[in-house]
Design brief:
single chain, alpha/beta, 8-stranded mixed beta sheet, 26% strand, transport, Oligopep_ABC_C, ABC transporter ATP-binding protein, nucleotide-binding, ABC_transporter-like_ATP-bd
Length: 330
């Protein structure tokens, strides 16, 4: 189904987040500098789709996810969930909203309370929201353990007794126990072995279809984002530089940074596609470059790139890119 025929579940507009950097006197003297983690990021999630967010470490993907969920307060911009503005909600209203928006974290061990059994961990969200009796909560937890491929005996175990893959299944079960509409997955398989990664990804795909979930899937792995996503947004240094359907992006990447990401993955290289090797490191988000954020590493950069910031513009159906050189043979 075309995205034009689907309703918008989440609408993110001009989202900004910067973190203060204090000097030797701490907060007394005020912030001397700021880390610009998210810089005017805008995108939409449609009901029932998987939207992949990909980019290098430090590009602002995880901060974006936490800001959407209200775990981090945005400095500017808006996040609208089913027409309701999220950034201005009170703590009480935000808690109610989290029944519909849940998150799976990167580290399956640190995100689970080591002092509680798996059963207690799974039932806690139900208790917080006052859902079901004690027996009903236990039955729901046991059923969900089976859904994510674990056994009833795991209900009585503690997190340290489980493997990394099993712990991530628990993290997923905890996120799904409230039957959310939107699931935010922040690098959910990056800490796992490759064989376990494929099991978790296959399970996520099946659950997404069975439960009609909308997913925001964050990763730095090109092959993972290609497998699981319907549409993909590419982030660099806190900005969204390209967005397209998965097929469009892999058939015809337009932004030089997207092309460089594909060049870095051996099995994604195309003999007919130019190979781009990036020089240098990603610039500091404390002092981001003027103009195009990518111009310090871009092999095609011209003077305009160093001065003027490119706008994310529509170049085809469902395909947006922020680059001054589009249409000039790049």
């Amino acid at each position: 189904m075309s995205t034009n025929q689907k309703s918008i579940l989440l609408d993110v507009a001009q989202l900004q987040k910067k973190f203060p950097v204090y000097g030797s006197f701490g907060k007394i003297a005020g912030a001397k500098q700021y880390v610009h983690a998210i810089n005017n990021v805008s995108f939409q999630l449609y009901e029932g789709e998987v939207y992949g967010l990909v980019g290098e470490s430090g590009s602002g993907k995880s901060t974006t996810a936490r800001t959407l969920l209200g775990l981090i307060k945005a400095n500017a911009g808006s996040v609208s969930y089913q027409g309701q503005e999220v950034t201005s909600l009170t703590a009480k209203a935000l808690r109610r909203l989290r029944k519909e928006i849940q998150m799976v974290f990167q580290d399956p061990y640190s995100s689970l309370n080591p002092r509680k059994t798996i059963g207690q961990i799974l039932e806690e969200p139900l208790k917080i929201h006052g859902i079901g009796s004690r027996e009903e909560r236990q039955a729901t937890a046991l059923q969900l353990l089976q859904t994510v491929g674990l056994q009833a005996e795991h209900y009585f175990h503690y997190p340290h007794k489980l493997s990394g893959g099993q712990r991530q299944r628990i993290g997923l079960a905890r996120a799904l126990i409230l039957q959310p509409k939107l699931l935010i997955c922040d690098e959910p398989v990056s800490a796992l072995d490759v064989s376990i990664q494929s099991q978790i990804l296959n399970m996520l795909r099946l659950l997404q279809q069975d439960m009609n979930l909308t997913m925001l899937f964050i990763t730095h792995d090109i092959s993972v984002v290609r497998y699981i996503s319907d549409r993909i947004g590419v982030m660099y240094l806190g900005k969204l530089v390209e967005e397209a359907t998965t097929e469009q992006l892999f058939d015809q990447p337009l932004h030089p940074y997207t092309k460089a990401l594909f060049s870095s993955v051996p099995n994604q290289q195309d003999k007919q596609r130019e190979r781009i090797t990036l020089q240098g490191e990603i610039p500091s988000p404390i002092a981001p470059p003027t103009g195009c954020m990518f111009h310090t590493r871009c092999p095609y950069a011209v003077q305009k790139c160093r001065v003027d910031e490119p706008v994310l513009q529509q170049v085809a159906d469902h395909h947006r890119v922020a680059c001054h050189l589009i249409g000039e043979g790049v």
